[in-house]
Here is the input.
Amino acid sequence: MTPEEIARSAENWYREHGYEDPRALAARLAQAMGDSRLNEHARTPLHLSMACELFAVSETAPLPVSRTGLYRRFIDLRCGRLPAGGGLRGLAHELRDGQSLLELAQTYFHPPDQVVGQLLEPSGLFVRHGADYRFVDASYQDYLCAEFIQAERTGWLSRRRYLRPRDSWPERDLRVAAFLIGLWLEDGQDLGRWLRLLLRRKRNRVASLRLLAMVVDDGVPLPDAIRTGTVQRLQQLVAEPFGSPGTPDGWSRLVEALDMVDPEQAQNILDDVVRRSHTHGPGAAELLLRRDRRRALDAMAAQIQDRQMISSVRARMLELLTRQLPPEEAAQARAVAALDPSMGEAGVQQATAVLKHDPARGLDLLEHQADHSDWNDEARFKAARELFGQDPARAVPLLKKLGLSSARSPQVRYDAGRLLGADGNEVFRELALDSGVHNAHLRINAAVKVEPAAEADRCLASIAKEGGLDPAGRLAAGSALFDRDRVLGLEALEPLVIDRSTPVDISLEAASTAASADGGACLDRLAGAKERPVYSRKQAAILLRRYKPAWAAKHLSELALNAKMSNAERVNTATAAAGADRETGEQTLVALATKKFHNPDDQLNAVGELKKLNPAQATKLLVRFAGDWRGPSALDAALAIDSRRQRITSLAKIADRSIDTTMRLQAIGEVGKLDKREATHLYERLLGRQRHLSGHDMLEVALAFHDHEHRAAAGHLKALAGNPKLNMDLRKRANSCLPRSQQVDLDPRSRH
Here is the structure.
């Protein structure tokens, strides 16, 4: 502000507050302010009134040059003479949004009934707000909070908290932090290191640079490197809106920060961004409107006319522009945009907006958009739809033109037919029969809407038999036709089953759909097609069980015995065959267990499934396996036998003929769980064949016999302990298992 402007504003203030000779006093104030930074702060009425009051109290005292100094002097002037004035700092710090200031003050100061008369009103910092009070300006509370923090929290921890702002901080916290930094700097504290860190921060840099901009704008003494670095960094980020900070909101906050320290550069950048930016253009236009309306309107008009710009951004610009123009000019701007094909659907929105001010012109614009091929299909349909809502007679020919044109988007053609209702029958028929449309489901939906029903069936049949269409689309058409007419639908589905080039899942679904009409003939054909994958043949046979169980069992049995699949899958397939025909399934499982499989585990798996169907047959096979096999598999087969007597017999045979002592003992142990006497007999019989057993094996058998029956085994252990032909260690082990009274006196000098 010039000295004359300051003097004129100050004169008005002094005159309103009853000072003598306000003109002379205002002139001296303007002269005292000179070219200091206080001139910038005096642009706001609040700061100018504070400077006026300070100067009126003491003309000889130099005026503060920073905003923080101005608040410090003014608050000291207002609150210093009040008995409880110092407590206002704590009150400001404790006050939260939505909280009653009067109630908080009455709990904060004593006596409560004198708070208004001795504190709130005399301070001049508060104004009545209904039954409550509030600060005259929020900046008073921000400054008092900063003073409270400075007094209560000293040291580097306090600095670290307020010198590391976050982007998530509310604006009030940044203002408090700026006042706090101003107080520290005015008190001579060295914050150079912290401020340089703020300038270099990459995370939360929007908040950091805004805080630095507030400090620079404050006018407190700062190193030149910090001041110039802040301005340059803000200019760099704001001038490159396509890079960081990325979000339009963050960029707008940086522009506001640059406006604090370099208003002219901020306006130049905003003007440039409005004209060329896709992302930040509308936000920049709103910011520029607050600073230079004429310049903003020119920039927005230039971007609206730029056809290289995204239509949605141009539409937002147009909305901003029309809000600033008179209704007639706004309607004219919308009409111009509505004639520009590059606006797309946004242009239709403008024509619709013109309808409110000039219906005839709006209808003409909509008709123009719907009828001209320069506009994209979606915009033409949207215009025709809007026109249909206002004047159906003018819209019907345009909708038919859109629907019957093969050059238009299939979805637009379908939507046009739907909008036409009864008049859309021809549109639906042409769309359904158009082989150039590859969206089968859209064509099917159109065919279903064709009248009469016979014509709709003809359209569906044509789609289902169309060779150029993908099999999934042909299947969908055939299924839709099958739901309407089973005979025609079956004719459409059969080729999908027969054709080897059709994907197996499509063929399978087609055969499954047709089964209710052909009794499973298509499924039977698919299950028997050897050129098809095994899994699809099996699935077809499983589905066939519902219609022709015998046929299904035959196919599944053949697959289980002859197809290439894992043994576990063979058993699963045979079980599926049993679900169709029990006898066929049993025969298949027996064949697998006795002829096809050579691995005992696979054979036992097959017998396990057979046991669920025919336990007697399964038991015969298990007894046979237990007698024929050698090794652990024989023991597994014997243990799988359900009959107690037959299991004991099979286990006894294993115990008699096996050459593996461990397996013999396992077999006898299993017999012992069923028949203890039979197990005792087997142990004694085994120990009676000493010539077939080594000394170690004899001892192991005797020890197992001892665990089974102490008394019966004692004689065998004693004989082993007294046998001089055995190794001394074996004799000692046998002797140690005997009661002390029955132990043998071993000769330690014996070499045996």
Q: What stands out?
A: The longest helix spans residues 171-186. Residues 1-61 form one domain. The beta strands are 126-129, 132-135. The chain has 45 helices and two strands.
